[in-house]
Amino acid sequence: MLNENAQTELVKTLSGRDVAQAGARCYRRTENGGFEMLFVGSRRNGRWGIPEGRVEDGEASSAAALREAFEEAGVAGIVDKTVFGSFSYRKDTSPNRYQVAVHLVHVSRIADKFPEKDVRKTRWFLETALREAAQPGLRMLLSRVETLNL
């Protein structure tokens, strides 16, 4: 029989835990005054989403968002330190719940070489493309972008 502490840890493991992540809502202005948003394809299933990943110990979520944007899409730009919004999701392969703090990133350039260039597809969509996002929570959050004066 497991002691009380071991039982508590087993329940946490089986039910998953909250994992802090940061995401980057990357955008750029178009010549006609609108804007485009950058999506990246998931490595697991190719569905469209935003660059996102784990916030390292002691790292600000804005710094993590900019790091993920570079690693996954080669993006360099100006990150808004204020959290634009958040969403959560679960992966099919994990019991964990991922809590994503999303920051706006105004893209100034895209590098020719970046860590995940060969494993991710990227695509720019007009601001009306929020339906392309795979996660329902992300689609809801992105609907707020259309009302911003970026």
Automatic annotation (TrEMBL):
It comes from the Bacteria. The keyword Metal-binding applies. GO terms for cellular component: cytoplasm. Keywords: Hydrolase, Magnesium, Metal-binding, Plasmid. PROSITE patterns: NUDIX, NUDIX_BOX. Its cofactor is Mg(2+). Signal peptide: none annotated. CDD domains: NUDIX_DIPP2_like_Nudt4. This is DNA mismatch repair protein MutT. It comes from Rhizobium leguminosarum.
